[in-house]
Amino acid sequence: MELKPGLSAFITGGASGIGKALALAFAKRGIFVTVVDTSEVHGKEVSFLVEKENRKFHSDLKLPLSLFIRCDVTNTRDVAAAFEKHLQTYGGLDICINSAGIATPIPFYKDKTDGEVSWRKTVRINLIAVIDCTRLAIQAMRHAGKPGVILNLGSASGLYPMYDDPIYSATKGAVILFTRSLVPYKRQGIRVNVLCPEFVETELASKVNSKFIELSGGFLPMEMVVNGAFELITDETKAGKCLWITKRRGMEYWPTPMEERKYLINPSTYKRSFSYTKPNLEIPESFEKIVVHTLTHNFRNATKIVRTQLSFAIKPQHVLVKILYAGVNASDVNFSSGRYYRGNDKETASRLPFDAGFEAVGLIAAVGDSVKDLRIGTPVALMTFGGYAEFLMVPSKHILPVARPDPEVVAMLTSGLTASIALEKAAQMESGKIVLVTAAAGGTGQFAVQLAKLAGNKVVATCGGEEKAALLKSLGVDRVIDYKSENIKAVLKKEFPRGVDIIYESVGGEMFDVCLNALAVYGRLIVIGMISKYQGEHGWKPSNYTGLCEKILGKSQTVAGFFLVQYANLWQQHLDRLYDLFSSGKLKVSVDPKQFLGIGSVVEAVEYLHSGKSVGKVVVCIDPTFNQQQAKL
């Protein structure tokens, strides 16, 4: 539904808190609002502000541009009369917001009354009234024969327990399940969704233990809640959806597709939506792979293709994976120089030859003894050495099950996981910050900018070239700095004089210096790489940063390194989260359009990545015969 002038909205609890914020936000779109509340003073004030804003859109209309109706939502007769007055005034109902809610004033086990302080009153307002208002709104929308949206206010306390107020938590949990059960009304053009924010600075939240609010990251900006509500209203695909909003993680839908699969009545219908044509899983006598045979940062000189006999005896607790797609990373050249093996050069050289490649997706072709949870044909991802191969045998504990063996999933591995885990753990990202991402149009940068934006931050990104700048703008970046046409240092100094709160840095060299100087007080600079120094005549040489300690000490800043291998315990969790965001349309994954087919194209792909021409993730199709079908999501 497009939020445009002339629509009408009915809001319970509209005199304060989230209800008031939504009433004013609707007014700025020229939408008529009926404010329903028990507070006559505050309700009339909100109605006046809505009408004043609406005059900008409807200066010639004689009908009321806003109504205030004093009403107790637990009184069914009064609520029905309020709906009727709205319909008589505006001729229909487009949006209904059920926002009225209260906390339980005393512990329920101390309650000996059935009056104002009764826990039953909390149930009547928070749950029964929501059901009643939803019923009346559906009747009104069906009678008018027009599409409509109903938005119920749940709470994060309905997703996890709120120990200080179990009655409130119970009512919000019930509202969530009630709303999610109303998906069938979409067939009649009526979509019902539920919004579940954590703590927002309202009168209701003032009664919550302040320590609990601090532990959750503090109050959410009201703007995030309004944006979440608008998304649920405007997105026609959202019906029966529960949008969870936190300061720690931004906006995400619950349950995730992976959780939902646990209780689907007919999971086979779900699997069909992720169909693909499986390649031939017959195991050959031999296969090709790329090995590093001499240590040098020049990947072409360091590697060669070899043919290897394939052992038919699969080791116990191991699986054999047929590789379909492999990911290319900037650090491939560090690996070929032996930098990722500890010890001196002589000790590292003694390991030669060793397998190249960090990440891949494919299908399980065979399983060894004691492997009970994986089957032949299962799509999987892996992040172990040896990804540049047609087949790879790995311990089953290193396997990451995935929904589909797609190039987009390859991008989610090293690139996506680095962004997701680094921003959460090393950067400790919250909402309301300024986040800078360097080399943002690359494999990991594209994830970093989107995750930062989803978390409710202002995102700045650097890149080189118009094509890359266009990609970043399409991903929602607030300010793109194209270093080929602008001076990054000058832009940061002029437009962000107070500095940047979080910097996700992967370039190194001069860019690191620019970023360090642009870091705000309490800022966090996360080093996830230094691609500018990986190649060259002498390869990667350490740099001296004289005065670094004094600089970060003076502003209480943090410069943190991040190496994905040390967070392996979080890979599956974050990969599932990334795929859920991708499959729900919240996250875009850009794979570079240049095709690299077969093992023989890997060297070319690595050199292409380091040329600076790539846009998005560079992926090699190891098996060009793999016939992928379009997903029918």
Briefly summarize what is shown.
By secondary structure, the chain is an alpha/beta fold. 33% of the residues lie in helices and 20% in strands. It has 3 domains: 8-254, NAD(P)-binding Rossmann-like Domain (Rossmann fold); 286-405 and 596-621, Medium-chain alcohol dehydrogenases, catalytic domain (Quinone Oxidoreductase, Chain A, domain 1); 413-569, NAD(P)-binding Rossmann-like Domain (Rossmann fold), CATH 3.40.50.
SSE map:
Layout: E1 8-12, H1 17-27, E2 32-37, H2 40-54, E3 66-70, H3 76-90, E4 95-98, H4 119-144, E5 148-153, H5 166-180, E6 190-197, H6 210-215, H7 222-234, E7 242-246, E8 250-254, H8 257-260, H9 267-272, E9 286-292, H10 299-302, E10 303-309, E11 318-327, H11 332-336, H12 345-349, E12 354-355, E13 360-367, E14 379-382, E15 391-395, E16 399-401, H13 407-426, E17 434-437, H14 445-454, E18 458-463, H15 466-474, E19 479-482, H16 488-495, E20 500-505, H17 510-517, E21 519-527, H18 548-554, E22 558-561, H19 571-583, H20 602-610, E23 619-621
Parallel strand pairs: 1-2, 1-4, 2-3, 4-5, 5-6, 6-7, 17-18, 17-20, 18-19, 20-21, 21-22
Antiparallel strand pairs: 7-8, 9-10, 9-12, 11-13, 11-15, 11-23, 13-14, 14-16
Helix pairs in contact: 1-2, 1-7, 3-4, 4-5, 13-14, 13-19
